[in-house]
Specification:
The protein is built from 20 helices and 41 strands. By secondary structure, it is of the alpha+beta class. Among the domains are: about 45 residues, no CATH class; about 80 residues, Rna Polymerase Beta Subunit, Chain: C, domain 4 (Roll), CATH 2.30.150; about 130 residues, OB fold (Dihydrolipoamide Acetyltransferase, E2P) (Beta Barrel), CATH 2.40.50; about 110 residues, RNA polymerase alpha subunit dimerisation domain (DCoH-like). A hairpin with a 2-residue loop joins strand 20 and strand 21. The longest helix is centred in the first third of the chain and has 24 residues. The protein is globular.
């Protein structure tokens, strides 16, 4: 019926000959549930209008036809299901009793089924997710995520293009930029900055009301349906000091069209230029100069930035950094006005004051003191670190809502995901070919991109068929050197430095009689029961890891009831590791300009400015034109201007600084600093003449130089690097396992076989498919031959062939193998 209201107004204007304002005052009961003749007339007129103007036809992708099911609603649905199940059970049980006297509430109601239903929802539903905690922004974004997939939603395989596409009704409600790149593109989105959800579950966005060309202070939240009936102007229109619109004709959005109307007809104005995008996207300066594909990568990669040891707020910001950090919950804010009394690493004490600065007292005459406890080196879900540090000193006066302690990736209360780096856009000896990045050693010396990661390792002492497992420092066949970090209970001591394969928790498991070898029996007879039938199942640090033990938690069955069946004891060891920037690490800017560190150069070999300042990072100029993310160049110029003037700039999205505003100012500041070489005052380009650090020679052309905000992403090469010698094999196929977790090898697949065939590398191919894979006898013989320095023997039949024969026999096919002389070969004995 709401759709018929405008049709009703037009109908009245034609029939009665009245104005639009008078028609608006006439009442049409759109909430009536009774069908009237007027409804039939209006519905017919609406259908005629749709046939003449197809753009007014509604679509199922319009946000007016979609609602958000919030967390509370999803939990309510689970409770309703659980209660209806419980109701049915109660009714069934009631029929079993003859008299009401025998009935008790405890016998009737089974609370466990209700608890189990809710627990199952949180444990197994795809909508209940493990929170992203790489940095504060990742957490904030995850909490504001919208999805069209999951229970009661779409399947990503079936979702058509129209569902994924940006719709005009998303304006101010769902971000058109931030969405995953893979199969979920357009299905998983993010709430816009100012979007809200009304009591019916519809997304709303705020607008300022306009009356006769004058902007009022009234803020109105409109749903996608309500918005269709109004002329809405952008927030960037010119307004005079008294709040009146300056231009006579103003661009407005009406339904899905953009048109120019008289300023008196403007009914609403956007509250902000950034209301169209999400928090993550609103952190990208010069977003309006970036291609949408690269902006998407930029907003997604900010969520992957690891918190650094020394975070630094960006020189070129958007003004959203403070708000994002504040609402992430990791920055500690003062609850009341006060004076800082005491500052410790883990605690801040503040005496409350009134607005005049007088200390407030309790009834006893003692000052009222607020105590703030800080989080120190707490592990996140993604192994990054939460560490809060005070930013106030004793005696400082603070206001309510002011930041008093920084969290991870924050600097003086502002979000700081990376560092400001002096960059130059120039090809350099091929080291920045294909998005590779050349980095100066200076960034390592300053610990600019060093991060701390905390990993947790756990082991359980269980009750086994042969007896209980035991956590102990008395481990068989282990030398004293390996036990030096363990205490008397067999658990590693806090503060110990541990490396690959070091024992964290000593544990022995009972071994069956059948597993003892003759040698072990002799040892047992000589040394008695202490050389007993136990095997070493200690918790060791994995390959490629090292660090310092910062915490150990021991859970005993007698103290903790939730350990699980058959578990007597559980030990968790927390190991912190400092990871400086290294070759292979992924770095990225805020414009989707990502790359991998290819080489770390000494600072004296890096290109340098006319005043001798060495460049810290060399990027490829070819990464800009085809990607169309020109925002990074503008950020480079403005970043250098910020450095030269020792200031910080905020350039909000869709309302930022312009190129012709930045470059003249930059030229003037460079002139003052003696760095104007390579530029022209009449048409400044922001370029400078650089010299090669190795030869001192000038480069052929002036080069774009400036400061870009770069982040180190969670894809760290050190965590991915892996090597395998002799390792575990698959039980059935007897082929090496795959993946770092299984200590596996690199897969030699079908296409790799073709590559060796194409080159005629027959011996290499033979080895790959036999002794380096699943020829058990062959690989043992080769090992012996290498040890004895003999020639390598001929390969045997691989295990995969034997498995194939067995599987064919399982299908009742009598497969037999013959040699070149026609004699049958017994495959099982080879």
């Amino acid at each position: 019926n709401k759709r018929l209201t405008p049709a009703y107004r037009k109908y009245l204007m034609q029939i009665k000959g009245i104005t639009e304002e008078e028609a608006e005052k006439e009442k049409y009961d759109s909430n009536s549930l009774v069908l009237t003749p007027m409804d039939i007339v209006l519905a017919t007129r609406y259908l005629i209008n749709v046939s003449k103007n197809p753009e007014v036809m509604d679509t199922k992708d319009h946000l007016g036809n979609k609602r958000v099911r919030t967390v509370g609603e999803l939990v309510r649905i689970e409770f309703e299901r659980a209660f209806s199940r419980a109701q049915r059970l109660i009714q069934e049980r009631l029929t079993l009793y003859n008299s009401l006297d025998k009935i008790s509430i405890q016998n009737l109601i089974n609370v466990k089924s209700i608890i189990a239903a809710v627990n199952q929802f949180f444990a197994t539903s795809p909508l209940s997710q493990f929170m992203e905690q790489v940095n504060p922004l990742a957490e904030l974004t995850h909490k504001r995520r919208l999805t069209a997939v999951g229970p009661g939603g779409l399947r990503k395989e079936r979702a058509r293009f129209e569902v994924r596409d940006v719709h005009h009704s998303h304006y101010g409600r769902m971000c058109p930029i931030e969405t995953p790149e893979g199969a979920n593109i357009g299905l998983i989105t993010s709430l816009a900055v100012f979007a809200d959800i009304d009591k019916f579950g519809f997304l709303t966005t705020p607008y300022r009301k306009v009356v006769d060309g004058h902007l009022t202070e009234e803020i109105v939240y409109l749903t996608a349906d309500e918005e269709e009936n109004y002329n809405i102007a952008p927030s960037t229109i010119k307004i005079d000091d008294k709040g009146f619109i300056v231009d006579t004709k103003v661009p407005v959005r009406y339904m899905e069209k953009v048109q120019y109307v008289d300023r008196a007809k403007v009914q609403f104005v956007d509250v902000s230029p950034k209301q169209i995008v999400s928090v993550s996207t609103a952190l990208i300066p010069f977003l309006e100069h970036d291609d949408a594909n690269r902006a998407l990568m930029g907003s997604n990669m900010q969520r992957q930035a690891v918190p650094l040891i020394e975070p630094e707020a960006p020189f070129v910001a958007t003004g959203m950094e403070y708000e994002a950090a504040k609402y992430s919950g990791y920055v500690v804010l003062a609850k009341h006005d006060g004076i800082v009394k005491k500052v410790e690493a883990r605690k801040i004490l503040i005496e409350r004051t009134d607005e005049q600065g007088n200390v407030l007292l309790t009834k006893d005459g003692a000052p009222i003191v607020d105590e703030y406890h800080l989080m120190k080196f707490i592990r996140t879900n993604q192994d990054t670190t939460i560490n809060q540090t005070p930013i106030v000193s004793a005696g400082d006066r603070v206001r309510a809502g002011e930041p008093i302690a920084d969290g991870p990736a924050t600097d003086m209360g502002e979000l700081a995901l990376g560092r400001n780096v002096l960059v130059a856009f120039v090809p350099w000896e091929g080291y920045n070919f294909e998005d590779a990045i050349l980095v100066s050693e200076e960034l390592l010396e300053n610990d600019s991109f060093t991060s701390v990661h905390i990993e947790v390792y756990e082991t359980q002492a269980r009750e086994t068929r042969l007896g209980p497992e035991e956590i102990t420092s008395d481990i068989p066949n282990v030398n004293k050197e390996q036990l030096k970090n363990l205490d008397e209970n067999g658990i590693v001591m806090i503060g110990a430095h541990v490396g690959p394969q070091d024992i964290l928790v000593g544990k022995v498991t009972p071994k069956g009689e059948g597993e003892t070898t003759p040698e072990e029996k002799i040892i047992r007879s000589v040394f008695g029961e202490r050389g007993k039938d136990v095997k070493d199942t200690s918790l060791r640090l994995p390959h490629g890891s090292d660090g310092r033990v910062i915490d150990v938690k021991v859970f005993d069955k007698s103290e903790v009831a939730e350990l699980g069946a058959g578990v007597n004891k559980m030990v968790k060891v927390y190991v912190a590791c400092k990871k400086p920037l290294d070759v292979g690490d992924k770095l990225a800017g805020r414009h989707g300009n990502k790359g991998v560190v290819s080489k770390i150069m000494s600072r004296e070999d890096m290109p340098f400015l006319p005043d001798g300042t060495p460049i810290q990072m060399v990027l490829s100029p070819l990464g800009v034109p085809s990607r169309m993310n020109v925002g990074q160049i503008l950020e480079t110029h403005l970043g250098w201007l910020a450095k030269l003037t020792d200031s910080w700039f905020a350039t909000p999205v869709f309302d930022g600084a312009k190129e012709d505003e930045i470059l003249p100012l930059l030229y003037q500041e460079r002139r003052v600093s003696g760095l104007e070489d390579g530029d022209n005052e009449d048409s400044p380009s922001g370029k400078v003449v650089l010299r090669d650090g190795r030869t001192g020679q000038e480069f052929d052309k002036p080069i774009v130089v400036g400061y870009i905000y770069m982040m180190k992403l969670v894809h760290i090469a050190r965590d991915k690097i892996h090597a395998r010698s002799t390792g575990p094999y698959s039980l059935i196929h007897q082929q090496p396992l795959g993946g770092k977790a299984q200590f596996g090898g690199q897969r030699f697949g079908e296409m790799e076989v073709w590559a060796l065939e194409a080159h005629g590398a027959s011996h290499t191919l033979n080895e790959m498919l036999t002794i380096k894979s699943d020829d058990i006898r062959g690989r043992n013989e080769v090992y012996k031959a290498i040890l004895k320095g003999k020639n390598l023997p001929e390969p045997n039949i691989p295990e995969s062939f034997k498995v194939l024969v067995k599987e064919l026999r399982g299908l009742a096919l009598d497969v037999r193998v013959y040699d070149e002389h026609g004699n049958e070969v017994d495959v099982d004995r080879i």
